[in-house]
Write a structure and sequence with these properties.
single chain; 121 residues; mainly alpha; 5 helices; 53% helix; globular; binds zinc ion
């Protein structure tokens, strides 16, 4: 499951990077920490990108953390898709297809019979 999620995180990573609102960013999209980025509207996305980029050893993090990263990305993509009025259940664009997969993965994760903690990693 973890590997599926890691693979699934590749798409939103690109999408978030391309769609971040950097108008209030003083650092051109380089996350400098809670304090420096406090007033920026893109801070949440920036922080997410830093913590979940290709080089952040994501594969070694616990499944729950990786699943939470997917959930965050799902909400971001969801918001993007809604803004552009897609009929997500039927739409064939990459974002909507990804979203359907992500929703299923997130739901699967939350419905693990013995709770997420006991799922084989
Ligand atoms: Zn779509």
């Amino acid at each position: 499951m973890k590997q599926d999620i890691l693979t699934a995180l590749e798409f939103p990573r690109v999408m978030i990077r391309e769609n971040m609102d950097l108008r209030t960013c003083r650092f051109n999209g380089h996350y400098v920490g809670e304090l420096g980025c406090k007033l920026c509207t893109a801070a949440t996305e920036c922080k997410w990108l830093v913590e979940h980029d290709e080089f952040s050893n994501l594969a070694r993090k616990p499944l729950a953390e990786v699943a939470a990263a997917l959930e965050f990305a799902m909400h971001f993509v969801e918001a993007m898709v809604m803004e552009s009025d897609h009929q997500c259940e039927e739409c064939h664009c990459e974002a909507c297809r990804w979203l359907r997969g992500a929703r299923k993965t997130v739901a699967d994760f939350h419905q693990l019979p013995d709770g997420p903690a006991d799922y084989p990693q």
